[in-house]
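#struct-pred
JK: can someone run the complex with adenosine-5'-triphosphate? inputs below
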Amino acid sequence: MEFIRAETVTMDFGGVRAVNSVDFAVKHGQIMGIIGPNGAGKTTFFNMMTGFYRPTAGRFFMEDQDITGWPRHRIVQAGIARTFQNIRLFGNMSVIENVLVGEHTNIRSTLLGALFRTPAQKRDEARAYKKAEELLDFVGLLEKKSEYAANLSYGKQRRLELARALATEPKLLLLDEPTAGMNTSEAISVLELIHTIRDTWKVAVILIEHNMQVMMGTAERIIALDAGTKIAEGTPKEIQYNEKVIKAYLGEED
Ligand SMILES: Nc1ncnc2c1ncn2[C@@H]1O[C@H](COP(=O)(O)OP(=O)(O)OP(=O)(O)O)[C@@H](O)[C@H]1O
Ligand SMILES: [Mg+2]
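RT: done, structure tokens with the ligand placed:
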């Protein structure tokens, strides 16, 4: 069954149509890829799906519930988490605190509890901390848990963003160029991580990725955007040899 579905979604910024009437669907546990040249509308599509922007037209459905225009926190609680093309971490907080921020969306807290720290709340906090450690272990950052996030290498910051996104217990994970700036071996290990995430928690993944080789080895199905419009959809093989896709990328190199 489909987990998320976009119907003729459009986004205008003033006179610029960034996304043009795109249809799209992802099934539970599926790894889907979005490719397209710079400015194709990939990040804008994520921004609409996660409540950063409200689409100018069209709708998003999650398991047939209309989620168009929902605020960000509600979309996170409903099960969609993301990472950012430009890493967004709290650099002056520790690594583990950054993961706890992600978990916080699911922890009950009250003003009284914050003032007096009831036993129930202490238990919640201990549980949250243990879970954060497990997630850091999973992404290979447990030894770094007390370091400032800003002091991590670029590749490790991307892994930390992944851990923070997982902390919200998503059913769908949106990854905006998760291997950007990484060398090949780092990139491969992140791709393995993405498959493990899907296999372990049955999380669906939508991946924006410029590196075609990376995309071919990871996504089960790909859509290609060009100037906001969907120009192709299919298996990696089909997309690789699609004439419109080849043309879109050749145009970019001129
Ligand atoms: N907040 C905004 N205000 C105005 N224009 C925007 C805004 N966000 C994106 N755009 C424009 O929308 C178009 C699509 O941008 P978007 O960032 O979605 O592309 P992209 O496919 O993610 O590109 P890249 O591969 O460079 O990340 C571009 O023309 C961009 O300038
Ligand atoms: Mg982008």
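RT: quick notes.
The beta strands are 2-13, 16-27, 31-35, 57-62, 65-66, 80-82, 172-176, 204-208, 221-226, 229-234.
Residues 119-139 form the longest helix (21 residues).
JK: thanks, will look after standup
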